[in-house]
Amino acid sequence: MKTPTEHESDKGDAGTDNRSDLAALDAKIRAHTEAHRQKNPEPAETGRRSTAIGMAFRLSTEMVAGLVAGGIIGWVVDDLLGTKPWGLLTFFFLGMAAGILNVFRTAHKLAADVAEQVGKSDDPSGDK
Question: The domain containing residue 29 runs over which residues?
Fold first, then answer.
């Protein structure tokens, strides 16, 4: 039985042929991949879509957090003071108002961040 080194020495130029075949295959794969990327420039679109989904989840979380916090505080106040259902209703609506206020604040901040990023990408000198 031959050792691996003996097999390699028997090959002669076969190892070189395999390397050139692999290099040619690699070049074909790279060319195909580049052509596919030029035809389908989706990664940037996907990035924008995921950013928009993230913003939507953040805004909805702000609203839900305000409602839940107001409801819990109202329930505790009602339980301690025996004012059912007025504490729950009052603090639920206060939580709703706080949630809406937080949504507006967050939306304005996110819009300013997006406008800043768009401004930077439009400026060819990068001086913003």
Answer: 1-40
